[in-house]
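User: I'm putting together a small comparison set for a docking exercise, and I want a reference complex before I start. The sequence is below, and the ligand is FE3-S4 cluster. Could you produce the 3D structure with the ligand included, as structure tokens?
Assistant: Of course. I'll restate your input first, then give the structure tokens for the complex.
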Amino acid sequence: MARIPFIDQDECIGCGNCEESCPDVFRMNDDGIAEVHDPHGATIELIQDAIDACPVECISWEEE
Ligand code: F3S
């Protein structure tokens, strides 16, 4: 089973770090909150970097 990133959008503060790290995976929606655009748009390592860069730790892995 593959892992894909999940964003708890109630916790996201819209800092944009995830989009900056992996712009093909994460993007900001019209409300200024991050969403997963393409869960396979970057390597596991790069997505993990984005997870680590989130100041409120609202991105996690889930099983696909
Ligand atoms: Fe939100 Fe965290 Fe990304 S606060 S914008 S999910 S780095």
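The pocket of FE3-S4 cluster is lined by residues 7, 12-18, 34, 53-56, 58-59 (CB under 6 Å). Residues 44-53 form the longest helix (10 residues).
User: Thanks, that's exactly what I needed.
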